[in-house]
Amino acid sequence: MMATFLRRLYFTVVALFLAAPLIVVAGVSVNEKQDLAFPPKGFSLSWYGQIFFDAEWRAALIASVTLAVTAAALAVAIALPLAWFLWRRIAPWANVFQILGLAPFILPPVITALGMLTFWATSGFYGQPWTAVISHAIFFVTLPLVTLSLGFASIDRSLVEAASTMGADDRTVLRTVVLPLIRPYLVSGYAFAFVLSLNEYIVAYMTVGFTIETLPIKIFNALRYGYTPTMASVSVFFVAVAALVFSLIARFGDIRKLLGAMSSES
Amino acid sequence: MKREAPKSIADYSPLFFPGLMLIVFFVIPFSTMIAVSFFLRDPSGFYTPDFVFDNYARFLSVFFGRVLAFSLMLAVMVAICCVAIAFPFTFLLTKRPRKVQTIWLVCLLSVLSLSEVIIGFAWSTLFTRTAGITNLFVFLGLMKEPVALTPSFWAVLTGMVYQALPYTILVLYPALVRLDPQLLEAARTLGASPPRAFFNVVVPALRNTIVATLIMVFVFALGSYLLPQILGRPSHWTLSVLITDQAIYQSNMPFAAAMAVFLVLMSLALVGLTLLVGRKENAL
Questions:
Q1: Is residue B265 within 8 angstroms of chain A, CB to CB?
Q2: Does residue B239 fall inside a structural domain?
Q3: Chain A 70-89, CB below 8 Å of chain B: which residues?
Q4: Quick check: B1 and A239 CB within 8 A?
Q5: CB distance A25–B119 less than 8 Å?
Q6: Domain containing B226 — which CATH number?
Q7: Residue-number span of the structural domain to which B170 is assigned
Q8: pLDDT band for position B1 (50/70/90)?
Q9: Model pTM?
Q10: Residue A73 vs residue A40, higher pLDDT
């Protein structure tokens, strides 16, 4: 009895700690006038409208979504053949590429950002919008690489063997057996990269910070020149997008398995 | 189809695109950065090629020493706080029904994916005088009047623990979810109370996991670059902030690159240590 109570208390405290800043931000985002008050004074959803109707915020939204959609696609395009090769072939030295794919994510982000900045500055492409797409794709390639490696590892090799004894060549096996089996992992890898790219600040700032404003850059710039409730509404919007994407992953895949639980029985 | 060694060049073809991308856009930028760290600063542009150790020599200044010591101290505190909160939490979470676990994991991932800008903004709002948590304390009669809690060291620490806590839980999750339940059952059958079983059986069994997690959270915390700026004073700036500041605002790329190289070496040494600790665990 006592133990259950203590456990509930502990879970509640952690939940409150994680939720508190978001609750306050959600509160200030519905203030009627432009002030930073909690509990909110009056109620208005007009600051949410600003994200879509104010020209500057809308431009930032479009820039962010475009960047995230393309960077995540490129990240998956890099990770898929690599993960497939590592699963299909015995080539120990190819693991070097796996380490290269994991490195940007493990190192402090400022290092990847600075590496990209020096590279684009040296090659003369500094500030071009597509440089941010490539930078983000490399920075987040780890996520599809990890989910896809898990996906390939979960494939029962006898299925593949059956297909090839029946006369299917590599390409047919890939299209009719392997790809359908790893589709959930492919989708979650894309989704992880998409959400993180949407929220990323430092790499985007160091590569295209002076030519394009993504939403996180816009929020940070706005933060310096004082407060507007639109910042709060954008933050709530981001939390909602992340929660939606991860709920969908949980709904259609096994998020516990993706995060390292071995089997899905318990 | 068994795994087999590639026989012809064509068998290697899936590697071409990923390999090319990773070499051109990761290995080369990384090498460029190392090269730039030996270049001379050019105040009018980016830099002029050279081979000098001046940028590294600047590490010997008192100012740099203070920033480095502060960064390390802050990251250590964040790592300890996070593991202390997350370890019992994750352990209890793995004992909950599947559905509860899934909901928590979705929430944790959502918080983890949040931009540092948003976390910084959210906590700075929570710490303001007009909308902040102190209003609640006043309401409850704990304080006389609302105050601003930022900028301060504690605000930076709280923000960084908030940022790193979901990460810590997700790093610990696989190890704890795979923990053999018989271990705990045995302890309970032998008469240990749940807390005693936890501290005397679970914690020692996962000692290496705890050390590895502490190091990983430490490296994660070293990478925080916006929270010290948003929630702290310039005296609370970390190495990551200093690198950004030198690269963008002081346009001193060579010095920024030298500091980044230093940070890489430190992080790599620590990640290597984690792998070593992990290997020992598997050998047991």
A1: no
A2: yes
A3: 77-79, 81-82, 84-85, 87-89
A4: no
A5: no
A6: 1.10.3720.10
A7: 70-279
A8: low
A9: 0.88
A10: A73
Fold of A58-227+245-258: MetI-like fold (1.10.3720)
Residue B23 included in any domain: no
Residue A136 vs residues B116, B118, B131, B277: alpha-carbon distances, Å: 16, 19, 35, 31
Residue B282 has pLDDT above 60, yes or no: no
Cβ contacts of A232 on chain B, cutoff 8 Å: 121, 125
| Side-chain half-sphere CA neighbours of A207 within 13 A | 31
Q: CB-hemisphere CA count at 13 Å for A52?
A: 5
B102 contacts chain A (CB < 8 A): yes
CA distance A172 to A169: 5
ipTM over 0.95: no
For A216, nearest residue in chain B (alpha carbons): B117
Whether B7 maps to a domain, the answer reads no
Q: Three-state DSSP class for B48?
A: strand
Total domain count, chain B: 1
More confident residue, B279 or A45: A45
Residue B257 near residue A111 (C-beta atoms within 8 A): no
Residue B157: band (very low, low, confident or very high) from pLDDT cuts 50, 70, 90: very high
Are A94 and A85 spatial neighbours (Cβ–Cβ below 8 Å)? yes
In a domain, residue B163? The reply is yes
Which residues from B are below 8 Å from A255, CB to CB?
Answer: 102, 105-106, 109
Cross-chain Cβ contact A36/B125 below 8 Å: yes
- Residue A77 — pLDDT band, cuts 50, 70, 90? very high
Q: Which of B118, B174, B257 sits opposite A260 (nearest CB)?
A: B174
Residue A266's pLDDT is what? 35
What does the alpha-carbon distance between residue B104 and residue B236 come to, in Å, rounded to a whole number?
Answer: 32
Q: Mind listing the pLDDT tens digit for each residue in B163-214?
A: 999 999 998 998 888 888 888 888 888 888 888 888 888 888 888 889 888 9
Of A237, A254, A251, nearest to A198 by C-alpha is A237
Q: Residues of B with CB below 8 A from A247's CB?
A: 106
Q: List B residues 146-165 in contact with A (Cβ-Cβ < 8 A).
A: 162, 165
